[in-house]
Amino acid sequence: MKRLILVELTRYRTRRAIVLLVLLAALLAAFVAFQSAWDTRPPTEAEIATAQANADIEATRAGLQEDLAQCLKDATSGVAGVPGAEQCREMYAPNTASYLPRDPLSLTGTLKGNGIGIAILVVGLLIIAGSTFAGADWSSGSMRNQVLFEPRRSRVWAAKATAVTLSSGLVALVVLGGFWLSLTLVAADRDVPHGSGVLEDVGWHLLRAVVLAMAAGLGAFALTTVFRGSFATLSVLFTYSVGGEIVFSLLPIDGIARWSLGNNVFGWLETNLRFYDPTTRCIENGTCKGAQHISHLDAGLYLLALLLIALSVSWWSFRRRDI
Fold first, then answer.
1. Structure pTM?
2. What is the mean pLDDT of the chain?
3. Which residues pair with 273 in a beta bridge?
């Protein structure tokens, strides 16, 4: 079995299309990391001076002084919920940072923005790679020779599935790990404050992204084994992911958005996903309690169920159908 897995790993890394997809994933991650660092670069002395001048001009505006005076007056009224004097000064005192052309680098902000985006891009490319890996054997006709060499089809299927899973996980770990490592080093070089909690969130996000990439590559392999073609597999996945979102948004069923693929993928990747369900009737009459939440456990179980279904059908199909 070990020898079969090594053969499949070699076959995976020598596919030209897969090499190009992995290279594309690495280039995209590097580009997004560079763009994130560049867009949050520290302001120059001239930009700081300009921001300070704009803040000084704003401080002399009559309307601002009137608003500050009114806020201070309300603060002494003793009414509950009214900002205090210190809060009033913070609210209406012009801040130089507000006039700077760029926001500083924030790992928390990246975790909610570009971090999620690059993770989804890498997972998408690994889905194509997993489907390409399986589809090449069927399109070239080499699958027949492989099962002649190893007649126990279950071992062949398991070796291929293991190779895809391990390769997808390794690529995701290197690419996404490099993305987050580079931004963490940039933040450290700029003395950007971030606590241990932020790094812990990044670490758990990276782990979940790698697990998702492994599952996505394995699922793409499983479906391609069923359809025996990459084009059919990618078409089905595209239809389910895009068309499914449209159908879920149109069905008049309360809470059905909880079961959409997109919400569960984001629920798995994000630190704490909260979303408003457009199908919930309470939105129409304004009685909604607030945003809904999908936990990592709920999202993981949903995605795991889809993966197990695909694997079961794939394993049965590979063992029973003619090759």
1. 0.83
2. 83
3. 294
- Per residue, what are the HEC states of the chain? CHHHHHHHHHHHHHCHHHHHHHHHHHHHHHHHHHHHHHHCCCCCHHHHHHHHHHHHHHHCCHHHHHHHHHHHHHHCCCCCCCCCHHHHHHHHCCCHHHHCCCCCCCHHHHHHCHHHHHHHHHHHHHHHHHHHHHHHHHHHCHHHHHHHHCCCHHHHHHHHHHHHHHHHHHHHHHHHHHHHHHHHHHHHHCCCCCCHHHHHHHHHHHHHHHHHHHHHHHHHHHHHHHHCCHHHHHHHHHHHHHHHHHHHHHCCCCCHHHHCHHHHHHHHHCCCEEECCCCCCHHHHCCCCCCEEECHHHHHHHHHHHHHHHHHHHHHHHHHCCC
Q: At what angle do helices 196-227 and 230-238 cross, to 10 degrees?
A: 130
- Determine the distance from the C-alpha atom of residue 90 to the mean position of all C-alpha atoms in its chain, rounded to a whole number: 36
Q: Which residues contact 151 (CB under 8 A, 6 or more apart)?
A: none
The residue assigned the tokens 């990747």 is 269
Query: Domain extents for the chain?
Result: 2-41+104-320, 45-99
Give the burial string for 163-189 (b: 16+ CB within 10 Å, else e): bbbbbbbbbbbebbeebbebbbebbee
Structure tokens of 200?
A: 């812990």
> Which positions of the chain have pLDDT values less than 70?
56, 58-70, 72-87, 89-94, 96, 98-99, 145, 147-148, 150, 252, 254, 275-290, 322-323
**Beta carbons within 8 Å of 240's beta carbon, 6+ residues apart:** 261
